[in-house]
Amino acid sequence: MNNCVEQANYWQEFREILRERLRKPCKHPTFVMYFLGIIMIMGGFGLIEPIIRFLSGSLKPEDFPRTLLSASYTYFVAIAATAAVDLILSYQKRRFLLMFFLLCLMVVYVCAWFAASYGAAPQVPLKAIFPAILGYMMALFLWWIGNAENANLLDEPVKPTAPIGADGQPGGDLTGFNT
């Protein structure tokens, strides 16, 4: 019976860690602006190119779905992979979060594989869109969770000891000094 209680506590701890990693970054404008501006807009810039080519007429309407699909899965795989590596290199506390990340990363790769396979068909079937959207959303989720405790993206107040360049009192004494 005691083992079941311990197991339940691990699941509860896992849920609490995920919940905290989802909520914490929302309080930090730097994190949210980085996510929106760099990860979604700048990182997703490759998704804009096929749209512009389609709107300008240089991309045939029948080629647009395949080109956009290809741009999407190459983008979301890169985002998911870097998020996973960032978390793996920086997080040393609980293995269950690392395993969750690896499991989600496998789902992202499976989504990319299906999107690529379906997207290679002569007529891009509608079913190619589902794995692309799922992979994209999972990749953004992984990036958010993986970087939720990235000190470079969180707005922490400057400590009052900053002007002296140390924590606490500066070392040394005035023994032997005559005035």
Overview of this protein structure:
With 179 residues, the protein is an all-alpha fold. The chain has one domain (2-153). The protein is 66% helix and 0% strand. It has six helices and no strands. It has helices at residues 2-23, 29-42, 45-56, 64-90, 95-119, 129-146. Helix 3 runs antiparallel to helix 4 (64-90) and helix 5 (95-119) packs antiparallel against helix 6. The mean pLDDT is 81.
Question: Which terms would index this structure?
Answer:
elongated; mainly alpha; about 180 residues
* Arithmetic mean pLDDT: 81
Percent helix: 55-70%
Q: List the secondary-structure elements in sequence, H or E.
A: HHHHHH
Query: What is the rounded distance between the termini?
Result: 74 Å
